[in-house]
Write a structure and sequence with these properties.
Length: 356
């Protein structure tokens, strides 16, 4: 008996066909014979095959129906399926390939042909699996490098601003909590469909990148800024967008950089206000990008609950009340309600971060 033999399910309502196929495969594979699609799905809860030989014409559920169900379940849709059929028309084969079959073998089948086809498709499946692993490893390496670079840039920004230490990390945490609350409450589901969280959350670290261009005299001024100084400070949002746009141009030859698109939105929109009184563009309501509306709450909550050059830290409960009171003026009312459901988690995160 060969060690680590591959497992093949044979699904056919004809006992003779099952026995012939099992006898042909038993030497090289671990074979499980099943007389219906229902029995196959029951068996799948206990063990998963490397390949399925599936009869097309069965009385309860035909092979097409069984394959359609199989491909609809993520845990099984990678399993290669070869149809066994007495049909030889092109339309039947096309339908099977559309549903995801990897091959057709006509009945009565040739044993050498059957063995060769199975060997080929198991080899292809193994190759695809190895390729998937390589792609995931490379993607993980790219994500780690990107996250490290973003962290370096955000730390550089914070090193110039003596009063906002830890702001970037905390704000990213609050952003994550708000998105968790949106998912739990099914808020803005259509907009969330296109989000790639592996890129989105780390990109928020660049939301204040425009502060690199703000003078230290303004950035670290003790006390309240003058109206003129505040106007200069406000330019950091547009400057952040400009800096990230330059990054996009430099990296354009490598294709669209999704994380920079998110970062540019965060940088340019997190100081806009629901009533149109924000900056840099004075956008109103849903004309403000959703990501900017979310980060606005996270950013303000952190500013309220931590020391700034012009104020002391505010108690978390008081900060939350200000967020609630600003619903419909500064903040998107739906997102304020999300914040309300996550307020205790915000408080826990604030305490945990401050303890570091």
């Amino acid at each position: 008996m060969q060690p680590n033999r591959k497992t093949v399910f044979i699904v056919d309502d004809n006992e003779t066909n099952l026995q012939v196929a099992k006898q042909a495969l038993n030497k090289d594979y671990k074979v499980v014979t099943l007389i219906s699609g229902a029995m196959m799905f029951n068996q799948l809860t206990r063990s998963s095959p490397d390949l399925i030989l599936l009869d097309v014409e069965m009385p309860e559920e035909d092979g097409y129906t069984v394959l359609r169900r199989l491909r609809s379940e993520p845990q099984y849709n990678h399993i290669p399926v070869i149809f066994l059929t007495a049909r030889s028309d092109e339309a039947s084969e096309l339908e099977g390939f559309k549903l995801g079959a990897v091959d057709f073998i006509s009945k009565p089948f040739s044993i050498p042909t059957l063995l060769r086809r199975i060997e080929t498709h198991l080899f292809n499946a193994a190759s695809h699996h190895d390729l998937d692993i390589m792609v995931r490893e490379k993607t993980s390496q790219v994500l780690a490098l990107q996250s490290g670079l973003l962290s370096v840039v955000s730390n550089l920004i914070e090193s110039r601003d003596f009063t906002t230490g830890g702001h970037v990390e905390r704000t990213q945490g609050y952003l994550s909590l708000l998105i968790d609350g949106m998912i739990a409450g099914n808020v803005f589901p259509e907009e969330r469909k296109s989000w790639n969280m592996e890129w989105l959350l780390p990109s928020a670290q660049l939301h204040d990148v425009g502060k690199i261009r703000i003078s230290d005299l303004i950035l670290n001024k003790r006390g309240k800024l003058t109206p003129q100084e505040f106007e200069i400070m406000k330019t950091h949002a547009a400057m952040g967008e400009e800096i990230i746009s330059h990054m996009e141009v430099k990296l354009a030859k490598n294709g669209k950089q999704e994380f920079l698109e998110y970062a540019k939105t965060f940088a340019g929109a997190h100081h806009e206000k629901w009533d149109g009184s924000g900056y840099p563009r004075g956008l109103m309501g849903e004309k403000i990008p959703l990501l900017g509306r979310i980060l606005a709450i996270a950013d303000v909550y952190d500013a309220l609950t931590h020391v700034r050059s012009y104020k002391e830290a505010m108690p978390r409960e008081q900060a939350a009340e200000i967020i609630f009171a600003s619903s419909g003026s500064h903040f998107d009312p739906q997102l304020v309600e999300v914040f309300r459901t996550m307020e205790s988690e915000f408080a826990k995160l604030t305490v945990a971060e401050d303890a570091h």
